[in-house]
Amino acid sequence: MTSIDDRTSGLGAPARTALERLFDPHSVAIVGASANPAKRGFQAIRALQQSGYAHPIYPVHPTALQILGLGVYSSVDRLPHGVDVALIALPAAAVPDMLRRCAAAGIAGAVVLANGFGEIGGTGAELAAALAVAIAETGIRVIGPNTSGLLNVASGANLVGLEHVPCGPISVITQSGNMLLSLVNDDRATKGPGFHICVGLGNQADIRYDECLTEFVRDPGTGVVAIHSEGFTDGRSFLIAAARAIPEKPVAVLRGGRSEGGRRAARSHTGSIAGVDAVATAVLRQAGVELVDRSDELAVVAGALADSAPIAPGRKVAILSDGGGHATLAADALAANGIELAQLGDRTQKRLRHLLGANAAVADPVDVAGATDADPLVFAEAAEILMGDPDVGLVLVIGLYGGYHLRFDPRLRTIEDAAAGVLLTLVAEHDVPLVIQSCYAGLDIANHDRLRAGGVPVISSIDHAVRVVAALERRGRLLATTPQRSTLVLPPPAAAIPGSGLLDEPTARRVVAAAGIDLGAWTFARTVKDVAAAVADYQRPCALKVVSPQVIHKSEVGGVRVGVPAAQAAEQAQAIIDSVHAHVPDAHIDGMIVAPMADAGIELLVGATRDPIFGPVVAFGSGGVMVEALRDVTFRAAPFTEFEAREMIDETIAARMLDGYRHLPAVDRHQLARFLVRVGDFVAAHPEISELDLNPVIASGSDLVPVDIRIVLRENSGDDDD
Q1: Cα(673)–Cα(693) distance, integer angstroms
Q2: What is the predicted pLDDT for the residue at 176?
């Protein structure tokens, strides 16, 4: 008998990339195959066969001759050259060497199931380092370790083991096998559209979220990418990938680990309020992803984004309900999500009144008041009227639709089925999406299935239906404003700022000013005499601030005086020196910052941090003494555009005061947006900047005057090229 190891079977050099071969394998080797049904090496072969995988499966085992009807290879070295994927079902200690052998056999990628690497510390960390070396030396692409596996539903490449996963447009990236199982079950329960490719990244030793996202967006079988993440190893690359993906395919993200505290910088207001979750939430939204907060939302929101058209920008939502209680709940939920109801025109309301009768409510939300009980086709007629209104961008049907034949009369089933066809035609003709919430959505109802197949979500929960509407509204706004948004790609680094740690304020001011950021008038005065001369030259009261490397918090040691007139300048400067020496006897005083008092205005915070995951991030919000109390701050990954800066401004409480607050003049929002952009460009071009604080910035009219300026450089930043 000829051994299978002696056969020659060259697969040839594939034209596809390694990632294409990995996510859509045309051949799979099971390394660690087993004849024991309890072992993963057996279950993987069985799953591939049961899922209809039509390409070659190569079990690898040192002694077995046959497993599940397949000939077995005694080692990876004996495989036909150029297998696409190896599923490695071996103990962690054996993985690094096996990756080298797989690479030598021309295998493009590996799915490493084993745990016991970096997640356990100790010897696991050593194994993780050895794994990284093997990947770097060979170039083989690796999913995992500690992964739930890979599943290409369309091809049957089932290296996860889940059975009967419905095929559809949702591609999934997750770190949790249980989360993938939850998504599949949620999709089944809500009769969602199904899945295309699913991957569990595990420890992300090699392949990351951004690479998967980019690859999935290129795949014509993907309609949406649903992501569960417990942490990005390279957040900036993910932001860039997401920003590029959004014009092509929507991306929905559920994040775990949001309550963990982030790094804090003791010398920076910005660092003290820039928690990991606040930054991540803001920059992910900036990149265009749809963030969901609940695990039961991800499947339903992703499914709707894949199937439904977005709401046209500037248009609103019309509720069409057969019950006042449901309509009220839907209207409240829409308002909580920031979604406006349509202002229906007089002609629309007159037509609805004629159709629905005197008892109906014909202003949004529309309540049919029983007009559909005997004839559910009236729903389609009312929807047609609403879709013709110029203010309506989506119709949300609330109540019993599709189940009237169960609630009232079985003979209504034919009418409801006909109405479903009419509704699909209306959606296509008017280009207005439709979302249906029905108490009967969980049942097997033919008209519901027909609507779903036509791209109309049919959902049992009012809250889920509204969450879908909110996602479609945001999707529409994102697509309309894509040309006005940043790609989030970092610019080439500028010449590094010399030094490390906290810069003295005169140096910080010169660096910021050299970047084109206007700081207003100021002088660095080295002596009391120089202070007096500077105040006299400005011909108006000034602020005086001590400059000393031993004094960080100036006001706490009497190092600041405000509103100082020329006649008192020398006296006040000497008082600052005396107070500082009283509090910090060994303080060396380099001089003082002298700046004319700014006109009355709004105190704002402008700052930046270098987030360890997402890179340079700019903060904006209420400043001065209120920064810690209000925590009114939002963030953007730098660099960003003026359009994004204006969005940033509008998100804050401070924005309410910019258009003229009490006796204060209105602030020029365009000038403020340009100021924020320049700050973003500055920190994006200087990776050596760890923290930047301009707090407060006094905003009055078109004047923006930073009062305090702090720059913290990374320690030994000159030795670090990243």
Answers
A1: 17
A2: 80
**626: confidence class by pLDDT, cuts 50, 70, 90:** low
Please give the DSSP secondary-structure letter assigned to residue 513.
H
Rounded to 5°, the CA angle 153-159-165 comes to 35
393 in Cβ contact with 386 (< 8 Å): no
Q: Is 64 left (phi over 0), alpha (psi -120 to 50) or beta?
A: beta
Measured CA to CA, the distance from residue 400 to residue 415 in angstroms comes to 14
Question: How large is the average pLDDT for residues 263-276?
Answer: 40
Is the predicted pLDDT of residue 261 greater than 50, yes or no? no
pTM: 0.90
Helix axes 462-481, 298-307, angle to 10 degrees: 50
Classify 302 as helix, strand or coil: helix
Mean pLDDT score of the chain: 91
Spatial strand order in the sheet of 458-459: 366-367, 316-321, 392-399, 434-438, 458-459
Torsion of CA 43, 49, 53, 57, to 10 degrees: 70
> Quick one: average pLDDT of 298-312?
96
**Alpha helices (H) along 222-315:** 235-245, 269-273, 276-287, 298-307
Q: The tokens 């509103």 sit on which residue?
A: 563
Partners of residue 496 on adjacent β-strands: none
Tens digits of residue pLDDT in 418-433 = 999 999 999 999 999 9
Rg (CA), the chain: 32
* β-bridge mates for residue 693, sequence order: 607, 710
The two three-digit tokens of residue 660, written as one number: 């003229």
pLDDT at residue 263 in the model: 35
Residues in the chain: 722
All structural domains of the chain, each given as residue ranges with its CATH number in brackets, are: 4-143 (3.40.50.720), 166-305 (3.40.50.261), 309-483 (3.40.50.261), 501-507+516-596 (3.30.1490.20), 602-717 (3.30.470.20)
User: Using one digit for the tens of pLDDT, what is the confidence trace for 649-666?
Assistant: 999 999 988 988 777 789
